[in-house]
Structures are given as C-alpha cells and as structure tokens.
Design goal:
11 strands, eleven-stranded antiparallel sheet, single chain, 4 helices
C-alpha cells in the first residue's frame, strides 16, 4: 500500500510542480511575457507624439507635438514641431541636437549629458521589451489582464522628484501607446503616441540633423 502511494506521488509530482509554477506566476510575470512576445520581432518604430505638461504650481498646461523614430538597439530621433522646432538624434553613445533659437547643431557624448543619457536609456529599455533591467531601479507593478505597467523609483531621492511612471502598451504589445510621468509636487507629463508603425525601413539620414 505504501509503495503504491509513493508511486502515485512520484507520477503526480511533475504535475504538482507545474501547477505550483503557474500559481506563482504574478501579474507582472504575465505582463512581461506579453511585452517580450509583442516586441520580440520589432526592429524599428516610428510615429507621432503629443506631449502635455501640467504645471501644478501655476495651474497651467504646456503642449507640444512632433514625430519620433527608434531603431533598436540604440538609435533615436525625437523631433518637436510645435510650439517650436527642435531635433534630438542619438546614435549609440553619441548625440546631436538643434533648435530654431540657437540655429546651430550641437554634437555631444551622452556621457557628458547625464539628463539626456538617463532619459534616452530608459526609452531604449522600454522599447526593447526587456523589463528585467527596469527592476534594478524601479519597483514595477502590473495589473492582471491589463496593458499598463507602473514604475515606482526605488531610490528615495528620485522619488522626491518623480513619484511614478505609467506605461500603457498597444493591444498587441508591439509598441507603446502612452507614457505618464507623475512628479511629487503635482506636476505631470503625458505622452501619447499616434500613427505608430513598426518594422518600416528607416533611412540612415533619419538619425542625422541636416541644418
């Protein structure tokens, strides 16, 4: 009888392990799996964006819009067309920027522009679909069955400035639909992406500034 029970337990063990693994899958694990699957085959992304910055202290809103293009793993073009023209391009560890006020192209190394460096690297990480790297600096939280992930900074000093970032993905998880950045003082920045296309050929000049 005892041998029969042990044999039955041995046969059932793989199924129990599998059940345990599924039970331990968190909403975050399921979410990250969807993002990895959706973005796995995406090499390029381009589209339009609208940015709304709400300034709590002045009860005011600042809006801007433009176009963007990303080529994995490390190329970006971010071009603002309204309310003024401004272009930022990144290729690897180098960048260049121009705006209609300065009228000249500034070339730089990302290492010399820590603010741009951090923002660009976060963007590349989010568009890579690999949220494992995010866990080192943020506490990620995903709603079960949802398309949004909230990132809360682990560093207390960072939280004194930025309280949370919420990223919403498209239905197929192949690209990002919107990004909301909430600051401790009540300010908030919302980025909404429109007309987004993936895996389109991007000319090499996309990541250059011709001015």
């Amino acid at each position: 009888m005892r041998r029969a029970a042990l044999a039955a337990l041995a046969l059932a063990a793989p199924a129990l392990v599998a059940l345990g693994a599924r039970a331990e899958d968190s909403p975050l694990d399921a979410f990250v799996a969807k993002v990895k699957k959706g973005m796995g085959g995406v090499k390029t992304t381009r589209g339009r964006f609208k940015q709304t910055k709400k300034l709590a202290a002045f009860d005011d809103t600042v809006e801007s819009s433009g176009t963007f293009a990303i080529e994995r793993p490390s190329k970006l073009r971010w071009q603002i067309s309204k309310p003024f023209e401004s272009i930022l391009v990144i290729t690897g560890d180098k960048g260049a920027r121009w705006n209609e006020h300065k009228k000249s192209v500034e070339k730089f190394a990302l290492a010399d522009k820590p603010g741009i460096d951090v923002a660009v690297k976060q963007m590349f990480t989010w568009y890579s679909g690999d949220f494992e790297d995010v866990k080192s600096t943020f506490e990620p939280r995903a709603e079960e069955g949802g398309r949004s992930i909230a990132l809360v900074p682990k560093n207390e000093k960072v939280r004194d400035v930025m309280s949370k970032i919420t990223i919403k993905f498209a239905a197929d998880f192949a690209t990002i639909e919107s990004i909301a950045i909430e600051e401790k003082g009540g300010d908030r920045t919302d980025l909404v992406f429109e007309g987004v296309e993936t895996n389109k050929d991007l000319d090499a000049k996309t990541f250059e500034i011709e001015k």
